[in-house]
Amino acid sequence: MDARMTDRRRLFHTLCAELGLPAEPQSLVGGAFQPGTGEAITLEDPFTRQTLAQYADCGTDLAARACMAADAAQKLWVTQFNPAARGVVMQAVASALAEKIETFARIEALVAGKPLRDCRVEVTKVVEMFRYYAGWTDKLHGEVIPVPTGHLNYTLREPLGVVFQITPWNAPIFTAGWQIAPAIACGNGVVIKPSELTPVTTLALVHLAEGAGLPKGLVNVLAGLGPTAGEAAIAHESVRKVVFVGSPATGRRVAMAAGAALKPVVLELGGKSANIVFADADLKPALLGAQAAIFSTAGQSCVAGSRLLLEHSLKDRFLELMDQGMRQIRIGDPLDEATEFGPVSNARQFAHVTAMIDGAVQDGATRLGAQGTQGDALIVPPTILTGLSPQSAAAQTEIFGPVVTALGFADEAEAIAIANDTDFGLAGAIWTRDGARAHRVAAAVRAGTFWINSYKAIHVSSPFGGSRSSGFGRSSGQDALMEYTQPKSIWLDPAPIPRVAFGYAPST
Questions:
Q1: Which residue of 12, 42, 193, 450 has the lowest C-beta tally within 10 Å?
Q2: Active-site residue 268, yes or no?
Q3: CB proximity list for 200: less than 8 A, separation 6 or greater
Q4: Do 312 and 409 form a contact (C-beta atoms < 8 A)?
Q5: How far apart are CA 477 and CA 460, in angstroms?
Q6: Which one of 196, 210, 268, 398 is the catalytic residue?
Q7: Active-site residue, selected from the candidate residues 122, 302, 311, 483
Q8: How confident is the prediction for the chain on average, in pLDDT?
Q9: Do 63 and 236 contact (CB within 8 A), yes or no?
Q10: In this structure, what are the phi and psi dihedrals at residue 274, rounded to the nearest 5 degrees?
């Protein structure tokens, strides 16, 4: 074992200690770390392929205990903390996290393989999420409805109770904050199961939050597997809603399990988003935007611009320049300050991405970009596939890696048709100087988020979600507050005597 590999495991243990975590991941239930008893799970550094830690699946019993802990703490959260007080606690969590951005970013880069500079941004965004939703805690009110019967009718927005959330390996700390903050702002308790491959920063976030004043057990973290911990939590009687972020295939299974238990779901799934470039676009921003759309975070983003639609007269020149540009991207160790592009997060995903590229080449695609490997690192260089039809597997399947399929179009109508020729409906973009065209296309493309002359701008204050195989429901902004509350309608009859109903008046 070389010195670099020895140092990675030592660094992992050091960072865990700085965040108050056990050296080997354990679930956090009722405010205490609890070891699992099930199947062994290995955490691997995707750059060196070194084993960082091994731990046991938490199993079904610990999942049930987590649901009961969340139920008990949720009742305390809404009875002993008024809405303003809940906001104060959430602000304290944000401040505590802001002091630990570098530590969180370093362990996220090590475990998930994301460049350190990107991890810093994502941890900073989680601080912002808690601050944003802290401001909403005392503003969740109902309304008075002027019903025609003369009653005083008003509504309240009440928390659901306990929410079970499942988050993915591609953005562990970001999706943890994205889901936890609105749920607890609305007065709910949470059981969250991060990917078994990347549980560390979610555990650290909740442990830090409890130290900042969040009631212990209000948020519980399950370090474990979907078929055991996940299914047990979905079925538990305390859980009132299920939120899933991940692949469409797993999302369908989650939705079916929740449906069998008559529980609503929010699904934030995949995408095959169209990034449309017209010949009149400002070329340099469009090129930089196209690269960022697919190659940032090594393409492991649900909104990645994985279908690049280019007007025919622009296509060859654009691809030539993009090929030149992507060869200049600095690829390397995620912990290196200079690295812009790191490995695919895990071996299973690496195998999927490389198989999709090989299959596309066999189907006749031309592959642009550097090729080759970097030792044992799970690195797939930035790749463009061209020469395929819009119906090809590479143009229809979510690859979830640094691979973009370039397609040509003749006019606006064809661009819209190709953009909508997919089972997904998550995101998209257009690059053009024609403002009227930009708004026509934005309205016509099926997408929950659409950008004009930019790509990947999102914010906690704006709703996010998709349709069809991209899921349903919204997971940010004011819309997320509606997902985590339910309305109660209250009727007061101010009449001093009983009313006549259906022609019958009771005797006095």
A1: 42
A2: yes
A3: 16, 21, 25, 43, 107, 111, 172
A4: yes
A5: 6
A6: 268
A7: 302
A8: 95
A9: yes
A10: -90, 125
Q: How far is CA 232 from the centre of its chain?
A: 22
DSSP of 188-225: -EEEEE--TTS-HHHHHHHHHHHHTTPPTTSEEE--S-
Angstrom distance (rounded) from CA 46 to CA 346: 6
Nearest Cα to 340, choosing from 381, 371, 398, 385? 381
Q: Are 90 and 134 in contact (CB under 8 A)?
A: yes
User: In angstroms, rounded to a whole number, what is the distance separating the alpha carbons of residues 504 and 508?
Assistant: 12
The SS3 call for residue 230 is: helix
Query: Coil, helix or strand for 144?
Result: strand
What digits encode the pLDDT tens for the residues 382-399?
999 999 999 999 999 999
Looking at per-residue confidence, does 3 or 365 come out higher? 365
3-state secondary structure 36-77: CCCCEEEEECCCCCCEEEEEECCHHHHHHHHHHHHHHHHHHH
Taking the C-alpha atoms of residue 397 and residue 400, their distance in angstroms, rounded to an integer, is: 9
- Residue-wise pLDDT for 176-187, tens only, equals 999 999 999 999
Return the structure tokens found at 169.
């390996």
